[in-house]
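Let us practice reading a record.
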Amino acid sequence: MKVAIITGASSGMGYEFAKRLNAFSNFDEVWLIARREDRLNQLAKELDFKVRVLAWDLTDPKTCDTYKNLLETTKPEISLLINCSGFGKFCKTDEVSVDVNLNMIDLNCKAIVYMCQASIPYLEKGARIINIASVAAMQPVPYINVYAATKAFVLSFSRSLNRELKSNGVSVTAVCPFWTKTEFFDRAVKKDQNAVVKKYVAMYTTEQIVTRAIRDAKKRKDVSKFGFIARFQMILAKILPHSFVMSYWLRQQKLTKRK
């Protein structure tokens, strides 16, 4: 049974990838994973494939056993694994509870590691893994620091895993979007406080990011970047001192005097 698996499929880039699965291949079954079952059921009606809806919370340790059991029972040939689950918070570290920050690490990092590692024995030759990182992975970002750190982990993990799996004919692509218009901001921004991000240099659409990601994944690139601004910022973050990059970010967002 040839399978495609998408986490975070109920909205944003996960939803867009699901709508574009025909660009990759034909699948016997598509597994859609997210917490909002109603959204997944609606998406399932829109797809041309047989769909298995899995309303899971990937931060719940019990989900790991559930996924492992499902793999052992069905023994799928995984052709495509797309990890889109994740969230961020735009605020000072102490303005959010430590439980939320740890939950962010669980979802953005630990869940991706588990989904990838548990899936490896079932990946068919030629399979592709796509993990959502971020342009923020290239630099430390004050007031978005936990999120940026988790995405740095995703980028490093994905690139090295790509090398490890190459001999198996499997590729791993880390997608590094710039600001992208999704429901991400509904959770990231605290409505009752002054906004941390005051200047969005560019705002892209999920269609733009996913279109480039599909093209790059087909070419088996280890990193996918869309847009001149995103590419330019990632280059600057490599060559400039991070102390300067952080200072520039704080000045740009008028955060230098924030208490």
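A brief commentary: Residues 109 and 159 are 14 Å apart (CA to CA).
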